[in-house]
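Lecture notes, continued. The same structure-token format from the folding unit now serves as the input rather than the output. Read the line below as a description of shape only.
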């Protein structure tokens, strides 16, 4: 089963008309996107958009062979005039299946928001799931069907991908393509980076793909270290990297601080950002968690883990530090690095990048700065990807 993406953008397209934002200003050439529309084997058109016939011609196809036009958006009719020769667009009721003379079967998938999703099975048995903008499948059960390709609003509704992964509808070989792309993420390299972290990709308008060919499916980094300064956006970046995965375990190493209202507010802000399906544990005992099998771990953060370990080994006292504290700390860091190397879990860890500014005025402050630098280097050496977040922008240092 072949598909041609006549458009991959949001309903208003990208760039949006009369929008002067940075993303729209740079959405040029292959990064410019018409409203999403998909041509399946030249016979089925999912969503009719302005200029679909011209887009098909540019891609080397004709709409003359289209036998069915289906709409996914919440509205009941196309916003454009139906080109001559095309059948009148329609919609399959939720849960119903449409059999085409071409051998394709199309089942309507109920959504949690307006619109209709379509599960398309080709004559060769390959399966494609197409979701409307801003929607996620509703009522998924453990017996949900698996798909060879997913076309979805990955940027706008990352939880849709997480739901499909949770029931096995999307697996490691599913080709996940981001469509309905809007100006929420700068196009080009930044969009590709964010999608790759979710195991997804985007392609230019006019691209033709074969459903079931998964050689281009991105490999999700299994171990990632996200570094950054205070309020740099490092925690947001770390959370974003796992928002398309279900059952994430958030490991908070800071614990609770009774009476500290500012700390309580920080913790609350983090909780509100996280998906409701994530679980949270408060611990600094990371080695056993890394040794266990289980869902992805998000560790926030290594800086507080180090503070706890330095407390335990007496690192703030010069005599205790010289009398064995330094040696014990080095051993704890080696144990953690070895656990990261051996873990089978997906791990995203956050840490502060310090030492680039004012030299601490105290010996204990300088000791902490130095040890955090060593910890970051040891942890990062075991990761497939290392990022440095500056002013909300993620710079890839490795991977």
């Amino acid at each position: 089963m072949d598909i041609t993406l006549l458009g991959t953008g949001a309903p208003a397209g990208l760039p949006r008309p009369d929008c002067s934002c940075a993303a729209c200003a740079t959405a040029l050439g292959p990064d410019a996107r018409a409203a999403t529309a998909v041509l399946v084997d030249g016979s089925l058109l999912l969503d009719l958009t302005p200029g679909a016939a011209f887009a098909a011609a540019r891609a080397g196809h004709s709409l003359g062979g289209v036998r069915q036009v289906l709409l996914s958006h919440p509205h009941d009719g196309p916003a454009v005039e139906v080109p001559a020769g095309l059948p009148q667009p329609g919609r399959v009721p939720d849960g119903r299946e449409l059999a085409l003379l071409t051998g394709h079967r199309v089942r309507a998938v109920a959504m949690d928001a307006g619109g209709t999703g379509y599960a398309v099975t080709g004559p060769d048995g390959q399966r494609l799931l197409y979701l409307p903008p801003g929607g996620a499948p509703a009522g998924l059960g453990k017996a949900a069907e698996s798909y060879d390709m997913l076309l979805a609003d990955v940027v706008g509704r990352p939880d849709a991908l997480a739901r499909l992964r949770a029931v096995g509808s999307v697996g490691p070989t599913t080709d996940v393509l981001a469509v309905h792309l809007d100006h929420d993420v700068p196009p080009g390299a930044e969009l590709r980076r964010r999608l790759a972290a979710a195991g997804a990709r985007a392609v230019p308008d006019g691209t033709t793909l074969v459903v079931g060919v998964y050689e281009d499916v991105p490999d999700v980094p299994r171990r990632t270290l996200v570094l950054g300064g205070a309020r740099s956006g490092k925690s947001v970046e770390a959370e974003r990297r796992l928002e398309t995965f279900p059952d994430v375990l958030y490991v908070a190493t800071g614990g609770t601080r009774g009476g500290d209202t500012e700390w309580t507010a920080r913790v609350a802000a983090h909780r509100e950002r996280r998906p409701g399906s994530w679980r949270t544990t408060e611990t600094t005992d990371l080695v056993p968690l890394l040794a266990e099998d289980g869902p992805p771990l998000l560790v926030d953060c290594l800086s507080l883990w180090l503070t706890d370990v330095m407390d335990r080994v007496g690192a703030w006292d010069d005599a205790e530090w010289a009398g064995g504290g330094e040696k014990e700390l080095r051993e704890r860091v080696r144990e953690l690095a070895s656990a990261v190397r051996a873990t089978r879990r997906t791990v995203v860890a956050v840490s502060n990048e310090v030492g680039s500014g004012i030299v601490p005025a105290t010996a204990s402050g300088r000791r902490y700065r130095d040890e955090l630098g060593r910890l970051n280097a040891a942890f990062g050496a075991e990761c497939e990807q290392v990022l440095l977040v500056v002013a909300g922008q993620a710079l890839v240092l490795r991977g």
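Point for the exam: The radius of gyration is 25 Å.
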